Amino acid sequence: MRITLFVPCFIDSLYPNVAMSMVKIFEQLGHSVEFPENQTCCGQPPFNSGYWEEARSVASKQLEAFKNADCIVSGSGSCGAMFKVFYPELFHGHALEAEAKALSAKTWEFSEFLVNKLNVSDVGARFEGRATFHDGCHGLRELGTKEAPRTLLRAVKGLELVEMGEAESCCGFGGTFAVKYPQISTAMAEVKCTSICETKADYVISNDSSCLMQISGWLNRNVGSVKCMHLAEVLAAR
Amino acid sequence: MQATDEAPPSSQFHSDADRSANDGPRRAAVYRALSNYKTARDRTGATFTDWKSARAAASTIKHEAVNNLDKYLEQFERNFTARGGKVFWANDSRQARDYILNLAKEKNVKAIVKSKAMTGEEIHLNEALVAEGFGVVESDLGEFIQQLKGEAPYHFVFPCMHLRRDEISDLFNRELGTAKTNSPEELTMIARKVLRRTYIEADMGISGGNFIVADAGMISITENEGNARLTVGVPRIHVALVGIEKVVPRLGDLALLLPMLATAGTGQHLTGYNSMYGGPRQPGENDGPEEFHVVLLDNHRTRLLADPEQRDALHCIRCGACLNVCPIFKNIGGHTYGTTYQGPIGSVITPHFRGLQDWKHLSGASSLCGACTETCPVGIDIHHHLLRNRRNAVTQKPTPLENLMWKAFSFLMRRPRLYSFATKVAPLAAKLHPLVQGTLADPVRVWTDTRDFPEPAAESFRTQFKRHQSTRASQTESTNTTR
Ligand code: SF4
Q1: Is B428 in the same domain as B290?
Q2: Residue A91 shares a structural domain with residue A130
């Protein structure tokens, strides 16, 4: 299958290893991976801030960049939700509405794509350690992703998966919210991270790098011992 | 002395939010209270055979009601007045207040007892009554405590959820002169003793209403303490102050809505007392008020009604569930909002009720996690409405600096080559970062004050992927040549 990667801007420059891990996994499964170079950002930051006009102009560039893709896979549930859920709303009543809907229909969050499109639940990974999983809100509530990442993680040899009490609670990132309301955002991170620490896990895994930026930001400052990993990085480990 | 203007709602919000987000003990108390709620709610929610369908049905009922508000409200009025009740349509808070004040004066009212009514808070009814010399006593235990404390309700269902038992005991001791105690039963008994006397002395009772039932011409009131029954039943005059969106078409609709309200609101199967009031005392009956007035309050609800995109926010049955699951509410608490209706639904409707520009910060103060929408028993698209409020605020009046910033952002993101160049210089910029770190010129300081920020990778994904592709291509080529 020809798989087109959508690599959100912050994964591109801050967490390239996440996207490289996705490449590795898909290629090992025998698929070809494409990366349209003219992709940039999904436009979520201005969209969430109310600047829909600016968001639309960025988004229309992505419609163009991904026009020829068969299926688009994103390593961030949040940016995936932007394509899948918010583009149709953003372009509602606009000239590019049909294109936005077409893009939405072929967009997948990484774990859903593996489990429900490729029907793979074991990618042959081996990773030693005790880990807990954080559900990114956009993946969980906009896209309905809950089981797929857990299915994949349960098949990882050497990995012990423990659920935390606040698995479904927001980490407090929320895009620009994290810098517009830093105190509230940090308080939310504290609640999340306290719950992570209670599990005595060595790793916290998520399918959304934006949440991990927030969680690791708090953990590194205050705890230090728990490591953050993206699901793809764990699945690419051998 | 120079008059100091009240701080605008947004700066008030910012400073209160910062303070309360740092108040560890209060946050812990709120989390504790709400975790009990969660356990109870999970248990009762599970007894619905199919919560999803129940929710869809509830949403359909409210949709029908809200989209035919004129028809159902008039039907209610006809049926209610046929039994001798009086209905007053109040456009705004002033009309509602004046009606109630004039009534109290005209009927020579001395003392008023009130059961829980958020509409009363909304129109600042108590302040108005007290200013005219009427004594008003709140009869709901939580509201009674808040009234003694001189504080607005913290949560529109659990008014004093933020208080510990010893704080309540101290308050009673200070205000009522009672002995300190740590027993919830004794605390309740103290309040009850004060309140019993009040019901008997009051000549006017004021309540809210959970539902306005059109076909029956009745008001439905749900409560756990029995105080609303006494507030309605004992004094000679009763006034129910109800928002117009509370209407439902049929009595039968309550068979679904009452259990849903209880489950979502408090985690009960059914609230302790569910009463229906259809007007004043009828001939041959020996209790109930001699006069029964219903004040139907608009107060900008029709403004929301006129917005087809967000009209469903009027479906709200004020169960409070969205507050109970909201991570923002849990961390900043109810008073920070500075509104009658706190939490997610408050952040949606307050800008409509009280002005978008003044209250848009509430819609901004959300990570858009969607826990509210997920829990809402009538399926309101709560967190997406926050996005729509943000959009509307910008369309109406963009903030100059932000406007410029997003224009620049969009300029960059529309140019893949420029963007790609930016990702290449990012690691360099990171190297220079220590020069400004922690200073006012530090662009990521709002982040790094409380959290670490990741270092940009030495090479962006696009660079790594390009190399990966060419290695693969040359590998395939060499395999082909060896063959
Ligand atoms: S918006 Fe929904 S969850 Fe929130 S109070 Fe209203 S009915 Fe309850």
Answers
A1: no
A2: no
Among residues B119, B120, B159, B155, the alpha carbon closest in space to that of B142 is found at: B159
Any A CB within 8 A of B421 CB: no
Q: Which of residues 174-213 of B touch A (CB under 8 A)?
A: none
Q: How far apart are CA A83 and CA A74, in angstroms?
A: 9
Instruction: Tell whether A37 and A110 lie within a shared domain.
Output: yes
A39 in contact with B, Cβ within 8 Å: yes
* Mean of per-residue pLDDT scores for chain B: 93
Interface ipTM: 0.96
d(CA B481, CA B464): 26
Query: What's the mean pLDDT in A149-163?
Result: 98
pLDDT band with cut points at 50, 70 and 90 for residue B2 = very low
Q: How far is B414 from chain A (nearest CA, A)?
A: 5
- Using only C-alpha atoms, what is the Rg of chain B? 28
A172 touches chain B (CB under 8 A): yes
Q: Is any atom of ligand 1 closer than 6 Å to the C-beta of B332?
A: no
**B252 in the same domain as B121:** yes
Residue B255 within a domain: yes
Do residues B109 and B249 both lie within one domain?
yes
φ/ψ of residue A94, rounded to 5? -105, 170
pLDDT at B115 over 70: yes
B319 lines ligand 1 (CB under 6 A): yes
Tokens 């299958």, located at residue: A1
Task: Please give, rounded to a whole number of angstroms, the shortest distance from the CA of B459 to a CA of chain A.
Answer: 7
State residue B4's pLDDT score.
Answer: 44
Q: Residue A38 and residue B332: Cβ atoms within 8 Å?
A: no
Residue A51 has pLDDT above 90, yes or no: yes
Q: Percent of chain B, pLDDT > 70?
A: 95
Looking up residue A13, the CATH number of its domain turns out to be: 3.40.50
Q: Which domain holds residue A219?
A: 124-231
Whole-angstrom distance, CA of residue B311 vs CA of residue B256: 22
